[in-house]
Specification:
Layout: H1 2-9, H2 21-50, H3 54-72, H4 83-101, H5 108-112, H6 115-149, H7 158-229, H8 235-265, E1 274-277, H9 278-290, E2 296-302, E3 309-312, H10 314-331, E4 337-345, E5 352-362, E6 378-379, E7 382-383, H11 387-393, H12 397-404, E8 411-415, E9 418-428, H13 436-440, E10 460-464, H14 468-478, E11 484-488, H15 491-500, E12 505-508, H16 517-531, E13 537-541, H17 546-555, E14 559-562, H18 567-578
Parallel strand pairs: 2-4, 10-11, 10-12, 12-13, 13-14
Antiparallel strand pairs: 1-3, 4-5, 5-9, 6-7, 7-8, 8-9
Helix pairs in contact: 2-3, 2-4, 3-4, 4-6, 6-7, 7-8, 7-14, 9-10, 10-12, 15-16
Amino acid sequence: MKFINKLILLFAFDQDEKLEVETKTTLLLTNVLNFFLFVIVFVEGIVSLLEENLFFAGPLLFFSVLFAFNYLYTGRRSNAKYYKEILFSFVLITFVFFIVFGGSTGVNIIWLGSFPFIAINLLGRQKGTWYSVGVFFFILLDFLLLSDIIPNAQSYTFNLQILISIYFIFSFILAYALKFIFAEVMLTKERAMINSQNSKSSQEEEISNLSRQIRTPLSNITGILDILGKTNLTDDQRDYINTIHASANNLVSVVSNMVSNQKMGLNPIQEEKISFNLYSTLNNTIRLFSENNSKQKFSLSFSADIPSTMTGNAIKTKQVFLNILNSIAKYNISETKQINIEVSRANNMPGTIELLFKLTSYGKIPFPKEYKSEESLYNNDIIRLNTSKYIQFLELGLTQKLIEQDNHSLSINIGRDETTFEFGITFMENTESFSVQNIREKSPISESFYKPSVDMKDANILLVEDNFSNQQIIILYIKNEVRKIEVAYNGKEALDKFGKAKYDLILMDVQMPIMDGFKATQKIREIEKSTNTHTPIIAVTANAFPEDKERCMASGMDDYISKPFQPEDLIGKIKHHLS
């Protein structure tokens, strides 16, 4: 067995390690088929040549040269286009020759039964079936007409015709069944993998929310205790405060350990990007739904300028589509569901492929219970809802985060009889594989500006925070250290204030209504590009995962501090960025 495994692996050549497993398997199978077909045809040609039967020897040796060239040249290139199609065309020509003229060895009849296996494995079940049916009818035509019309054509007895027909039909049924079983096993494994990933990601999201909910009040408690500790207290009062402070710090450690341990048990989506076929990826995802439910109809269309293969995160792409289709299947109450998927290219920048995905589900999707009257929400047949609430209602919060990791957004437009989901994903051209980590390491901050240092006591600070208690705590921390503090309750209000006044530094919360801290930071950086200026932005958030810091830095923030924190830590960061 080990010898056979090593022998088969020889046909993989030096494949790119970044290729998707499905692509590697397909290439290996195609190479094995190509090689053995070359051997079969070549041996038939040599035998015919030794028997001085040039009628068979010439064409068969020519066919063997075609197989050899396709194997040695095209088969060694992992990015070669139409490799399987070229091989199948050679197979079709060779088999037609065998059907009509036979062969000098008589073994051609045996190889006739392999055609359905080759067609279905190279072209897939649907195309392979049609070609197998076409070849079967050609065999019948040869039995009835061609053997009497074409010179040198082989004639078959009636009994042999019956046996060949039964043999071919049996081979087709067996080939189709094996391919169907293999596809079902692969789809089941893929579904289990994505469901497991969703479960783990949801678990991570739940732990992150719990951590944030605990850390925010803890930050307020420790902040007040720090302020009280600087006032005039009796020895007993100071002892009580120190006890509370120590207990609060212990609780902070417990939360931190809980998050750390839970994080170690999670298996986030691998960010390493590979070369894959996007159409095949989406088509396989659609099959999870269409093959098990005849009332769900799908239409998938690609614009002509999208390449067949590209470099990106295939697993994440599958997960996004599977989650959206799951949501449509769950909440679309129409008996028959028609889903149209359109993929278009949003830019033509060299090196990158930015695609826009539009999924339109025809049918009725209900509203959240909080919306009493549906008719009052229609405006020119389009419903304007709070996107965040509707995304949570459709259980697409995790999907939204996956899309936002790529600096895109998920939008949902709901009409009377249709719902449209739109989002973008950025891929790389299929030349070199990049990882998200390499992209993140690039500094989003331009160093071409000049910013004079500011003394902290003269600084004008903008605090962007939606929670009143959190505002008061931070103001108590720094009010005696700076000249002026202004407050904005969300990202949109912060942008309005930023356009009207000059601030030396911004303290930015992340989770806020209307506009979050990430979007507000990106908007501020866009404004600064035209003025060649830069305002330091420090994220002040209860999100404690390492990737939370990475996301803050990637959006354009300069620094990050996680709640709960010591006042000295925040003041130290402010002084650092002002100087």
